Automatic annotation (TrEMBL):
GO cellular component labels: cytoplasm
BP terms from Gene Ontology: proteolysis
GO molecular function, one term: manganese ion binding
Natural source organism: Thalassobacter stenotrophicus
Lineage: Bacteria, Pseudomonadati, Pseudomonadota, Alphaproteobacteria, Rhodobacterales
Leader peptide range in chain numbering: none
Protein name: Peptidase B
């Protein structure tokens, strides 16, 4: 990401307009202590400090002297996140400094939300919208929040870019650009070399596309515990020969959202120089339709040695991930995390805003849940329910990539992936959506990261950093 596009706070000595954060339950007391002129202005404008209310206050010369922002009542905040970012759509320009009762996690959320609220995907636009600036509030780690925002924006940009400009080649270039920025090593295995290197399922899924399939392998750091991130990089998913209907294909540029999310998380980790050894594995393919496409009924071999019956070519993500996970498991890290836009079943269960994750490690699960709440990156643990293993065991192969019946689809997908991770003690799989269907504060409609901030927050406890 070019340095001039990174999200930044305004310099601490910048001239800034006060932005007063006013909780509704203390608003009357605050207003009563203000000059009569301000009280009259507030009353005449009908400002009541409801959540998200904005009121500009003119000075004696008519110029803007302050901004009031309603903080509402505590119950209102349970229904949304990044409330301070609501101010951006009203203010648009200028530089501001927060004044109010926010502290700790609330203050961090406000500062991060401001940076993320200024995001717009403008790669194809002739003009970029203006963005109001914020002076870093006292009491936050500004550099950390800027690094987190930069990683999230990298994720959003990668997801939002259409497949014509974000195919396997462009995704590889994005990995190489990120690696070059932080001194990481990047190795790629491409096309028929995947067969020589024993990645048969990555090759099978991607061989019908114009751009060759590939496995991207980035490593960084030489001391500390080991962390491996595996991200699904299906740059576009037609469904293959089990062709998706048009309505389902429209968002499939986001099917590399797992890869985009682990790259955003990797950016955060490297920018913050965390004391660990990082590996990122991304199988980058396009699931296309051509005469050499893999077929329903095919039996595929895998790197792990397990055979897989293909009962639906639209369940391709777990196939490419399986080979990458098997590679990662050959040198077991202290923690392995897989992120993928894997199943519609996860959306049916939890909707677009809540990221389900699977792990057998109760301590890791607890750390992630607490971290997600703290940094407003909500997660929900789902069960690796072993009695469902029989659902992914067909009669003519070791595994079935798409069991019939339609039940527990997210769980059976997670169980499928778990078969390829046998030596890593701690493994977590995220079945994310990677898309914001309607605009919300700090999250415009489009690509969005899920789970990365929670993972980052949990790493010091999980890996004893």
């Amino acid at each position: 990401m070019p340095s001039d596009t990174l999200p930044r706070f305004a310099p601490p000595d910048a001239a800034a307009t006060p932005l007063h954060i006013l909780p509704q339950d203390t608003f009357a007391d605050w207003l009563g202590a203000q000059p009569e002129r301000l009280q009259a202005w507030v009353e005449s404008c009908g400002f009541r400090a409801g959540l998200g209310e904005i009121l500009r206050v003119p000075g004696d010369d008519g110029a803007l002297s302050a901004v009031l922002m309603g903080w509402g009542k505590p119950a209102a905040h349970a229904r949304g996140r990044f409330a301070v970012a609501r101010a951006l759509s009203a203010l648009k320009t200028g530089t501001y400094k927060l004044d109010g009762p926010l502290e700790g996690d609330d203050l961090n959320e406000a500062a991060l939300g401001w940076l993320l609220g200024g995001y717009a995907f403008d790669r194809y636009a002739t003009q970029s919208p203006p963005t109001a600036k914020l002076v870093a509030p006292a009491g936050i780690d500004a550099a950390r929040i800027e690094a987190i925002a930069a990683g999230e924006i990298l994720t959003r940009n990668l997801i939002n870019t259409p497949a014509a400009d974000m195919g396997p080649e462009a995704l590889e270039q994005a990995v190489r650009d990120l690696g070059a920025a932080f001194g990481a090593e990047v190795i790629s295995t491409i096309g028929d070399d995947l067969l020589t290197a024993n990645f048969p399922m990555i090759h099978a899924v991607g061989r019908a596309a114009e751009q060759a399939p590939r496995l991207l392998d980035m490593t960084w750091g030489d001391t500390g515990p080991t962390l491996t991130l595996v991200g699904k990089g299906v740059c576009f998913d037609t469904g293959g020969l089990n062709l998706k209907p048009g309505a389902s294909m429209g968002l499939m540029k986001k099917d590399m959202g797992g890869a985009a999310t682990v790259l955003g998380l990797a950016h955060m980790i490297m920018a913050l120089n965390l004391p660990l050894r990082l590996r990122v594995l991304i199988p980058a393919v396009e699931n296309a339709v051509a005469g050499n496409a893999f077929r329903p009924g095919d039996i595929l071999s895998s790197r792990k040695g397990l055979s897989v019956e293909v009962n639906n070519t639209d369940a391709e993500g777990r196939l490419v991930l399986a080979d990458a996970l098997a590679l990662a498991d050959e040198t077991p890290p202290d923690l392995m995390i897989c992120m993928a836009t894997l199943t519609g079943a996860a959306r049916v269960a939890l909707g677009p805003d809540l990221a389900p994750f699977y792990t057998d490690d109760a301590d890791v699960a607890a750390s992630l849940a607490v971290a997600g709440t703290r940094v407003r990156d909500p997660l929900w643990r789902m069960p690796l329910h072993r009695p469902y293993d029989t659902m992914i065991e067909p009669k003519i192969a070791d595994l079935d990539n798409a069991p019939s019946g339609g039940m527990a689809g997210s769980i059976t997908a997670a169980l499928f992936l778990d078969r390829f991770v046998t030596d890593t003690a701690r493994f977590v799989h995220f079945d994310i959506y990677g898309w914001q269907p309607t605009a919300q504060p700090a999250r415009p409609k489009g690509g969005v990261g899920m789970g990365a901030r929670a993972i980052l927050e949990a790493l010091p406890e999980v890996l004893n950093l």
